[in-house]
Amino acid sequence: MIIDTTEVQAINSFSRLESLKEVYGIIWVLIPIFTPVLGITIGVLVIVWLEREISAGIQQRIGPEYAGPLGILQALADGTKLLFKENLLPSRGDTRLFSIGPSIAVISILLSYLVIPFGYRLVLADLSIGVFLWIAISRIAPVGLLMSGYGSNNKYSFLGGL
After folding, report:
1. What is the pLDDT of residues 130-152, one digit of tens each?
2. DSSP 123
């Protein structure tokens, strides 16, 4: 059996077409997930920017206006500063509680996304008790903040954690 070059090219183009269909399928699965997450993120950034502008107006001072046009890149600057900040641990406090507290807060918030339906048939964990599980998991985040405040062995940090 002899296969000529046109048949080989047709087979290769068909396999490329099938792989493109798979890639498009994956993209269409991810779009309903990333659309609400991106919308919520942009909404939070706008609310933070508005809060800074309004509080600057109330306090009669200049608001965040030097980081980009109208100060819209201030949140990016704050996040960059937070990433490169030195990690300080309290000398008299409980370093394990102080370190694990923020991790518990972030992990519980990320776990709460499990029960959110992102599409008609796209749910990360299909549970019959979705709302109750979401409430229970989201109630763990303040415990992580309280642990960090208590672990610092400082009464003001503890009050901030409360």
Report:
1. 778 888 888 888 888 888 888 88
2. B
